[in-house]
Design brief:
By secondary structure, the chain is an alpha/beta fold. It contains 19 helices and 14 strands. It folds into four domains: 3-125, Rossmann fold; 135-309, 3-Layer(aba) Sandwich (Rossmann fold); 312-390, Helicase, Ruva Protein, domain 3 (Orthogonal Bundle), CATH 1.10.8.60; 396-443, Arc Repressor Mutant, subunit A (Orthogonal Bundle), CATH 1.10.10. It has helices at residues 11-23, 37-44, 62-74, 89-97, 110-125, 145-157, 174-183, 202-210, 227-230, 246-258, 284-290, 295-301, 318-333, 342-350, 356-370, 378-385, 404-418, 423-430, 434-443; strands at 3-7, 27-31, 48-52, 80-85, 102-106, 164-168, 192-196, 235-239, 260-262, 269-271, 275-280, 304-308, 339-340, 375-376. Helix 10 crosses helix 12, helix 15 packs across helix 16 and helix 17 (404-418) packs across helix 18. It binds adenosine-5'-triphosphate and magnesium ion.
């Protein structure tokens, strides 16, 4: 039986929480005086602590925060959930920074407390061997340490209700990972609803997410269900969450916090039970620091962070991905029986893909579709990688970061890799003669 320690100087709160958690099958112990907390934790050995931040003696929450810091100092691995008032969101955030796992705003909802407690305890205990086979994970191709670590994480957090924030550059597989988390969860028979928040203005936000009643605004000719209703009992995937405008951030926070919302034109609050997964290619932490993304919302969606590394950090996955994409093509276009030679595979593994896996997939697809012979060679891929995007100036380093000579050397190296050391092609692509290229290779000690 899992043990929970409740720290709250309000006896009625303690009693009612003790009853609630006791019924849910936890062994609960209450203490009213935070001064005894450390000894009690040492003696009782709880799996989780629920700590009220607002002690009546000092409503600023200073005492609660000090308590938390002491707890974290002595028991750094002990999961602590904070209970705070709505008005003291700042306190919750300071607490999260000090190491608390989650926070619950008062007045709370019993289901919210139970689900937070359950989620945090599950995250502590579920240990999944990375080798265990889960069909939902098979769609994610790759054998690098990075991908294995990500798969293990999905297997571990999937079955819980934890909110997950997936970050990573464009085309690294964020959506694929979101789907895999849903497939690994107990919600996998229910809907997985994707919302692209980047495309939703703050005027449309409420109607889109919470729905509206007929006549709620000009043009609302009939009732419409929002995405949260559609996702009820399932998972909602909030894509491009970093693009959400400020007014919408407040509205989203409220529904995530209270698990209730109202449709436009209706005063009746509706309850929802959704698991929230978000994704963004933006550096959300920086946006928080700059003030363009709410910090409280950031912590709300980010119980677990899964970061997908760019493809160039795991080049060993490239051959597997290429084979996978070729198999998919074979499946959808029928027999063509094309193979790829080792030389071409090595070459593909050495290229740079700013568009990550999506770009690699496009390159393979185009080469496959246009290939006339039985073998894909370097020549089959080259035209699709040397697109106009390589001419953009955005890739040029900052002034002062590189000398002209270093730049020249880097460009030659890149061209040599791209053309697999074919001198004529390298010279042509750089706009110099073969002998001019030889001179430079010698000068840079590259010959
Ligand atoms: N590990 C992988 N194995 C197989 N296919 C992958 C993998 N990662 C990504 N893909 C494929 O690459 C394409 C891009 O992936 P996805 O749409 O998930 O990227 P994303 O991170 O959401 O990009 P964006 O930020 O641009 O929305 C998809 O077709 C996806 O199926
Ligand atoms: Mg995406």
């Amino acid at each position: 039986m899992k043990k929970i320690l409740l720290i709250d100087d309000d006896r009625t709160v303690c009693q009612s929480l003790k009853l609630l958690l006791g019924k849910a099958g936890y062994e609960v112990h209450c203490i009213f005086n935070p001064l005894n907390a450390l000894e009690t934790v040492a003696a009782f050995g709880p799996d989780l602590v629920l700590l009220d931040m607002n002690f009546t003696v000092d409503t600023s929450g200073k005492q609660g925060l000090e308590m938390l810091q002491k707890l974290m100092g002595r028991f750094p691995k002990l999961p602590v959930i904070l209970i705070t008032g709505w008005g003291t969101m700042e306190l919750a955030i300071t607490g999260m920074k000090a190491g608390a796992r989650d926070f619950i705003a008062k007045p709370w909802d019993n289901d919210n407390i139970l689900s937070s407690v359950k989620t945090i305890l599950q995250l502590e205990t579920t240990e999944v061997a990375p080798t265990s086979k889960t069909p939902a994970l098979d769609a994610i191709i790759g054998n690098s340490d990075e991908i294995q670590r990500i798969k293990a994480m999905i297997a571990q957090v999937g079955p819980t209700d934890a909110t997950v924030l997936i970050t990573g550059e464009s085309g690294t597989g964020k959506e694929l990972v979101a789907e895999a988390i849903h497939d690994c969860s107990q919600r996998n028979e229910e809907n997985f609803v994707k919302v692209n928040l980047g495309g939703i203005s703050s005027t449309l936000f409420e109607s889109e997410l919470f729905g509206h009643k007929k006549g709620a605004f000009t043009g609302a000719f009939s009732d419409r269900e929002g995405r949260f209703q559609l996702a009820n009992r399932g998972t909602i995937f909030l894509d491009e969450i970093g693009d959400l405008e400020m007014p919408s951030q407040v509205k989203l926070l409220r529904v995530l916090q209270e698990k209730t919302f109202e449709s436009l034109g209706s005063s009746k609050a509706q309850k929802v039970n959704v698991r929230v997964i978000s994704a963004t290619h933006k550096p959300l932490e920086e946006n928080v620091a700059q003030g363009s993304f709410r910090e409280d919302l950031f912590y709300r969606i980010n119980l677990i962070n899964i970061h997908l590394p760019p493809l160039h950090q795991r080049p060993s996955d490239i051959p597997l991905l290429v084979k996978h994409f070729m198999d998919l093509l074979q499946e959808s276009y029928g027999q063509k029986d094309i193979f790829i030679g080792k030389e071409a595979m090595d070459w593909l593994s050495k290229q740079h893909y700013p568009g990550n896996i999506r770009q690699l997939k496009n390159v393979v697809e185009r080469a496959w579709l246009l290939e006339q012979s039985k073998e894909l060679t370097i020549k089959s891929f080259q035209p699709h990688l040397a697109g106009p995007s390589t001419r953009s100036t955005s890739g040029i380093p900052k002034v002062g970061a590189m000398t002209l000579e270093e730049m020249e050397k880097a460009m030659i190296t890149k061209a040599m890799n791209f053309h697999n050391g074919n001198i004529s092609q390298v010279a042509r692509s750089l706009g110099i003669t073969r002998s001019a290229l030889y001179r430079r290779l010698e000068k840079f000690g590259m010959s």
